[in-house]
Fold these 2 entries.
Entry 1:
Amino acid sequence: MTLGRLEGLLAGRGPIRTVGVVGMGYVGIPSAALFADHSGIGRVYGFQRDSASSGYKIALLNRGESPLNADEPGLEELLRRVVTAGKFSATADFSHVASCDAVTVAIQTPFADAAALEPDYTAFAEGVAKVGRYLSEGTLVVIESTVTPGTTEGLARHLLEEGSGMKAGVDFALAHAPERVMVGRLLAHIRELDRCVGGIDEVSTRRAAELYRTVLTTGRVIPMTARAAEVTKTAENTFRDLQIAAANQLALYCESMRINFYDVRAGIDSLKGEGITRAILRPGAGVGGHCLTKDSYHLERGARMWGTPDLPPGADSLFIVARRINDFMPRHLFALTADGLAAAGVRMDEARIAVLGWAFIQNSDDARNTPAGPFVGYCRDAGAEVAVHDPFVAHAEDVRISSHLPEVLHSADAIVVVTAHDAYSHLDPDRLREFSRRRHPVLVDGRNVVDADRFIASGFVYRGIGRGDKNSHDLVEPRHHRT
Ligand code: SAJ
């Protein structure tokens, strides 16, 4: 059997022994450390551009320390082990790519303008171009970043071929293996979650599968084409965003029909049995983070890059409508707040609003694309004064955040729960009313964390997302009230 040129080059290299990982972020660092910890791999380079914002990571990593601010079980010890063993080092010198049998690229791919489906590939393209410049024949390149379907065979392939003067699928192997890691569980997820591995051809898929088998424990390689892997990654987050949007829309319907969304949710959940599935997620103040807020746009852009899908004429994409519903929720939270203040007889432009939670997700300091941002903007645009509390997030652009709840609650006309931090799951209405010094403070529950009846009984004006059964309750005179 005559081996194709690429197969011959890979056979000539033998098993993968030297690996490069581009992008020392929350995906690249654990990935590089795990490759370095494998007995069959002799050397791993962590490539990191020496930029003002992240160049500091190079020295930190070479001391065996992690620059990630989240608590990642086992990562610091693993880094120390592989650095001490001389198997891993971080560097800004991309010329070491020339000695790598495999190079993975884990650089973020945000959207410059999501509505216009315009991603910002600046950092990604810079990193891939540097790999191309030093690429040697027979090397495997794997794109791990979440990208628009078609980017691996398109932009990435073009930059690698242009930089190296070589041809993908002939002189070097090229694949996409999207990351599925979640902060706080990075090492576990790289080892234990199944890994979709998609080559631009069979030979590339096989070589990429060989690379990831070195770090997988219970996770399996799921081979497919590069484009199928790109669609899998963007679609798995698109479907989560869709499920959240469906819960949000149903919650808005329940509010207008004066019923409790959570009764309906429990009712639907009771539908069990063979082959019956209903994923009723939770409505809320909005969808933040850097996965769900962008991956639907990558999928949409990819689908349109490959021609015009056969869809009902004039119908908006279900996935884009879902994004609009989720991005509408901070606006709805503002409408509930305005309605509550009106019921309490307080003008919005004279109101002091206490925002509970800045992080985009409970019990985390991650505030990327947080729904609290637009909500605070709407309040300020309407003339209200805003104070923000968060037990995990200390700083945010043009917002002062306090971790001292009584300070934030002082003289608050409205108290709005935006993030479901555990700190807000046992709020006591009488204490909150004392801190607020208002006879009828407003409590707006954006995450279904408070007991509506207790707050109403304590004299609060209550409003809650999905709580159509409580949002027009009568005002109760508090038993005792000290101003
Ligand atoms: N949210 C809701 N209702 C829900 C669930 C979430 O409003 O029922 C909101 C959250 O408050 C948050 C946003 O959506 O603002 C995103 O929450 P998330 O739980 O999806 O957390 P992410 O953004 O960190 O998503 C990541 C993704 N993981 C990767 O991309 C590797 C996603 O695929 C995972 O499903 C998710 O973690 C997870 O399940 O933890």
Entry 2:
Amino acid sequence: MFQISGRQLARSRGRIGLLGLRRGLSSGPEGASRGSGTPEARTRWRSPTTWLSLAATSGVASCLLYYYSVQYEERKEAVSGKRSYGTASIGGPFTLVDTSGKSVTDKDYLGKFMLIYFGFTFCPDICPDELEKISEALDLLSEPDQERIVPIMISVDPYRDTPERVKEYLKDFHPRFEGLTGDEDEIEQVAKEYRVYFSKADVTEVGDDYLMDHSIITYLIGPDGNFIEFFGKSTTPKDISVRIKSQIRKHEYDVLGSMMQTNKQATAQ
Ligand code: NI
């Protein structure tokens, strides 16, 4: 984490460059009327950027960004009183069980991007293909970007998919994968929120030997818990990684913009 490659350094410099550009754009007549042109104000205004440049070039930028991202989302939540779920009303609160048998909710993932896939461990072909695709997409991302994402498989087969079973199954895929299962009501609830269809393929089937029909969709959820976009069966690993990367960058600029705004307000008082 603290070792930095030339490529990472170049990327960090790129970020700061863009921030500088933003700053340049925002210091128009509006800034002048507030008196930010005085040497004192200018120094104070510059300080967060200098501090950030230092952080970025010393390689701790992604940790800091994660920290501020969590703070940013918590502040937003505190201001609005409650979280608003998705413009397209996809997704929502859930309470499920992780692979260690611990109860988890959507709030546990606040500050991270979630990549959610609904499937089941007995699926013969499609689920393994999709989970492999997500794993490949993650591998195409840089280490710091991977750390911003939690890939999650939610089981649509709570009857057979115990936490232990899901844990064992996910060993074949990306090490960052988390598996969630629950009781039938909990799974039905989360599937409904994500508009995921699932049902036993053959309702006359009795016992443990059956297949599930289910939607094949991977959802990208933002650090605020809101739905961003989804990837279908035909989306390639490359496409997924490019789209995730652009969403992470967009989020970083939002967070940094908000930090600078806060700093500006603090120094103006
Ligand atoms: Ni499947």
